Amino acid sequence: MSAFIGVFGLMAFWELLAARRVLATSKNSRWFSNLSITLLNLVVVRWVAPILPLGLALLAEERTWGLLNNLALPQWIALVVGVILLDCGIYFQHVLFHAIPLLWRLHMVHHADLDFDVTTGLRFHPVEMILSVGIKLMMVVVLGPPVLAVLIFEILLNATAMFNHGNVRLHPTADRYLRWLVVTPDMHRVHHSVIPAETNSNFGFNLPWWDRLFGTYRAQPSAGHERMEIGLRQFRDPTRLTLPWILVLPFIRKSSGYALSSRSEKLDHPDQD
User: Fold this and answer.
1) pTM
2) Which one-letter DSSP state was computed for residue 146?
3) How far is Cα 36 from Cα 255, in angstroms, rounded to an integer?
4) N or C: less crowded end of the chain, CB within 10 Å?
């Protein structure tokens, strides 16, 4: 929680000092909705999931469940491999939420934000959050990562999700080199483009390697970062994106072809880095 609050404060301050884009909608209204759903998710997940990944990792270690708990690896190697495998699992989870239309309807809440800043990285539907915790629990049982690896991964995932959703300006040279080590805001912003082919790219949250390895990497948005349109085409009315509306959004609105399995648009020449 200390890491969460610290990174959030740092990113919010950075956005004030060096914003990458001018916001298109009311910041106060968006922040109220996005932070309200974040608090709601904390309550819902705690109520629904009596055991969370860190607790299950302790149990898995005691009972030698999972791959890494049954391999004679040095502790530091198991730690590094555990963090990397968990991150790879989150990459595929993200792809899954784009590939299956029913899951995409939940994930639309995240993409329907009309602007892109640190609070966008916290904006997820409560049902998606519950499913995400369930998937992480399954990964912990199957992989058997060390407890410390799970703790480090959870802190990194939260921190990098806020970092790569930040409306912050990085020098192009710094961004070019950083995106070999971590998903940068300019890299992930492409994923929030209104163009479906760009929405279905750059799925990584923490480590950037998976997109390059599995062919989902796109270097830049076709319209450029200042001119690109954020969000989804069917959700353009800010008054319909307040907290009550985004909670019911998956159940009342169509997904309109954004799901990966029904990709309707494709750029002729993907960007190259």
Assistant:
1) 0.91
2) -
3) 24
4) N
